[in-house]
Q: What sequence folds into this?
């Protein structure tokens, strides 16, 4: 008798309520009957590296430019994609529209929904104007039944909505548990690799924003995508954090409307259409996502407060980095923020992870603090703890996008020219 961790595979001769190797809080599961007679062991097969490289990956163009850009040119046959996102962000809508686009191009698609009935999926498809015969609906939570059907039908794309609601009967645990998610994903990955059927797994997210289930799930799949957005404005951003067939950190932009998601081919123009440059506390930042430069608006609001602990509310940026910028402003520019509430927001639900957003955040905060609008100003640069502003990569791409949109007033360490925070504030008119 032996016991095994369902997450890392660690084995133990006795049962424990946790894994001593990976630190998981899941108890070790009992395993028995896995020993094979030596005479029945099967030898692995090898394939030459030259022969393997000659087998080029078959990509299917989806017909959606934004999705094809994020995937690196289309869906690769036999690949496994994991799509995560908050409830109601539009994951099922996006995948149903993707299924309709592929079906319209002559590919068969199978949608396995364990969360909704066939009538519910059909109602959404009708609202989106999708009614192609090449799309088959399956409402079953048995992974083996879905795999058997997919092996017989061989669709070009299989959508599992979601991986937390399907399971394997012999495990005995409820769907959504660590063991069920791990085994279900393993069987679906095996299906993709042996048949060439591309598989999309929809994953729920936790309250911290990460994908629910074992972290191993992200290692098992080929592509990890996140659909994010601001529910108040309808903008949705599709990001890739892992892609074995293309570049990572590439984004696609969509707008959620009554007829479904529509592509946004020029996000910079969309963001700038509602920009009020004569209001204090707003600056444009030329962000770069993969090979794409997008102008996003960073807003700040500084408000006096009598509370002993002033509030710091930050959306779309790293809170630690913003708090560091506030500390540098307090030290090197005489902005007293210890008794002020500070709100910082990236408009449109966009999320920025680049250090180059430090300077626009500082300028937006200083503008709101002094109640002086900055006009049509764009800025970028990384701020150090000593108050220096450093240059960031891909400067040419940012300048080209600003030139295209007609933003000529810029504050940044262009060409590696040294810049101090005080000088940057003066150049912005503060």
A:
């Amino acid at each position: 008798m032996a016991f095994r961790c369902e997450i890392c595979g660690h084995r133990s001769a006795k049962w424990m309520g946790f894994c001593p190797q990976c630190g998981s809080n899941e108890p070790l599961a009992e395993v028995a009957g896995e020993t094979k007679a030596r005479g029945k062991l099967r030898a692995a097969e090898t394939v030459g590296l030259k022969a393997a490289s000659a087998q080029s990956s078959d990509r299917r163009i989806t017909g959606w430019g934004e999705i094809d850009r994020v995937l690196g040119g289309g869906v690769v046959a036999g690949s496994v994609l994991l799509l995560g996102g908050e409830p109601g962000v539009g994951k099922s809508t996006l995948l149903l529209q993707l299924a309709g686009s592929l079906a319209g191009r002559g590919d068969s698609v199978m949608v396995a929904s364990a969360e909704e009935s066939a009538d519910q999926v059909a109602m959404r498809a009708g609202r989106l104007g999708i009614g192609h015969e090449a799309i088959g609906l399956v409402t079953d939570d048995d992974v083996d039944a879905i795999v058997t059907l997919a092996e017989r039908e061989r669709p070009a794309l299989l959508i599992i909505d979601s991986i937390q609601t399907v399971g394997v009967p012999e495990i005995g645990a409820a769907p959504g548990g660590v063991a069920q998610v791990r085994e279900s994903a393993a069987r679906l990955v095996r299906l993709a690799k042996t048949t060439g059927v591309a598989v999309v797994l929809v994953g729920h997210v936790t309250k911290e924003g990460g994908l629910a289930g074992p972290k191993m799930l992200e290692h098992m799949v080929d592509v990890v995508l996140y659909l994010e957005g601001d529910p108040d404005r309808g903008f949705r951003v599709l990001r890739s954090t892992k892609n074995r067939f293309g570049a990572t950190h590439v984004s696609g932009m969509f707008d959620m409307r009554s007829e479904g998601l529509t592509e946004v081919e020029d996000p910079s123009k969309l963001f700038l259409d509602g920009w009020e440059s004569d209001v204090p506390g707003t600056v444009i930042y030329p962000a770069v996502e993969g090979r794409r430069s997008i102008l996003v608006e960073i807003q700040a609001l500084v408000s006096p407060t009598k509370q002993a602990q002033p509030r710091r509310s930050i959306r779309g940026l790293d809170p630690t980095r913003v708090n560091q910028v506030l500390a540098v402003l307090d030290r090197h520019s005489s902005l007293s923020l210890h008794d002020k509430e500070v709100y910082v927001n990236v408009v449109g639900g966009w999320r920025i992870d680049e250090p180059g957003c430090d300077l626009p955040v500082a300028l937006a905060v200083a503008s709101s603090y002094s109640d002086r609008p900055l006009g049509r100003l764009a800025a970028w640069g990384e701020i150090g703890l000593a108050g220096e502003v450093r240059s960031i990569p891909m400067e040419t791409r940012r300048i080209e996008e600003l030139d295209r949109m007609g933003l000529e007033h810029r504050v940044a360490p262009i060409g590696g020219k040294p810049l101090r925070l005080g000088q940057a504030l003066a150049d912005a008119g503060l």
Observations:
- The chain has twelve helices and 23 strands.
- The longest helix spans residues 178-195.
- The mean pLDDT is 87.
- The CA atoms of residues 219 and 334 lie 48 Å apart.
